Amino acid sequence: MIKEDFMKKRRIQCLSVCLLLSLGLLWAPAWAADKPKDYPNKPITIQIGFGAGGSSDVGVRLLADSLKKVIGQPVLAENKPGAGSQVMLTDFKNNAKPDGYTMALINIPQLQTIVFDPTRKALFSMKDFQPVANHVQDPGAVLVRKESPYKTLEDLLNDAKARPGQVKASTTGIGSDDHLAVLDVERRAKVKFNTIHLKDTPTALTRVLGGHTDVDFDNIGGFLPTVDSGLARILAVMMDQRYPDLPNVPTFKERGFDLVSSSTRGYIFPAGTPMEIVRYMEQSIKKAMADPEHMERMKKAGLTLKFMGVEEFDKFLESQNDRAKQLIAEYRK
Fold it and tell me: What burial class does residue 272 get, using C-beta atoms within 10 Å of its C-beta: 0-12 exposed, 13-18 middle, 19+ buried?
């Protein structure tokens, strides 16, 4: 009996370690960052380029609750919506000091489509930002209201093919991951939507639930509460495999379209922030993400954790540049 209990505990421990490894959250003592002298000694602000209530906003606020326990200071969330986060990023570049007290949330590939699209006239470049850590990788999905005649992805695509340019599809902004997903679906399915760009997830959800748009392209994290309430349904997800909490919802791949898309969200400081502060915050975010309470709250919010440290996050950002440039050329034709 004692041996069975011991083996059961060992299995639980192994499963816990495997989960943390899969999320990139297992602590490695060699990477532990020393706490900088006298930092932080006041609240830290995280700026968000989208409105309150969307999945980007929710993820930041959940991290802030966990992070404050790690660093011993309040962590404040500040919304500055507009132009798909361009308003916030412009203000961040112009006014945030490289002292470790102002971070910003960035959404990828949206950051790249702002920077590299000449029509956006961005007043900042990738070099203006210091990557700190990634937090979320939120898969893309397609949602309709419960009264919609579209019961399946095929229903939607067949109608879009029969009525080119008439089915209204909403996104959270030009150059967002959901905008790029719309373009990808149009290209692969040989259809044409009437694409309507809105400022954020709550606005897009309000429009589709009110019947002002026919379908909403966005991310699972923004959709789950509405789906759980019974007001809407997801037709398909843009993942390699089905989403665990939506076992009856197919992937685009299952329906014959090799489409995987997500919104990857992490944190930056202004360029020039001392690396000892960057390293300390990198490891503090990692520790906050490994907090079981944070993991459970993120799961309930439908937000998938994906930690990347300074170097990995920096390489990931760079890897997205060429893809963004190609898609910009496509939607600016």
Answer: exposed
Q: Is 107 helix (H, G, I), strand (E, B) or coil?
A: strand
> In DSSP terms, which residues pair with 170 in a beta bridge?
196, 216
In the block, residue with structure tokens 């440039």: 325
Q: Token pair of 301, please?
A: 């919010």
| Cα–Cα distance, 49 to 291 (Å, whole number) | 26
How far is Cα 216 from Cα 295, in angstroms, rounded to an integer?
A: 27
Global pTM? Answer: 0.80
* Phi-psi label, residue 313: left if phi above 0, alpha if psi -120 to 50, beta otherwise: alpha
**Ramachandran angles phi, psi of 55, nearest 5°:** -65, -35
User: Helix H segments across the chain?
Assistant: 2-23, 55-71, 86-95, 110-116, 153-162, 177-189, 201-209, 220-228, 275-289, 292-300, 310-319, 321-331
Residue with tokens 């937090």: 135
User: What confidence tens digit (pLDDT) does each residue in 187-216 have?
Assistant: 999 999 999 999 889 999 999 999 999 999
How many whole angstroms separate alpha carbon 186 and alpha carbon 192?
6
pLDDT digits (tens, 9 = 90+) for 303-326: 999 999 999 999 999 988 887 888
Contact partners, residue 15, CB within 8 Å, separation at least 6: none
On the question of pLDDT at 4 being above 50, the answer is no
- Domains belonging to the chain, first-starting first, are 36-137+263-331 (3.40.190.150), 139-255 (3.40.190.10)
The CA distance from 213 to 145, in Å, is 10
Name the residue with tokens 């960035």: 106
| Separation CA 297–CA 308 (nearest Å) | 20
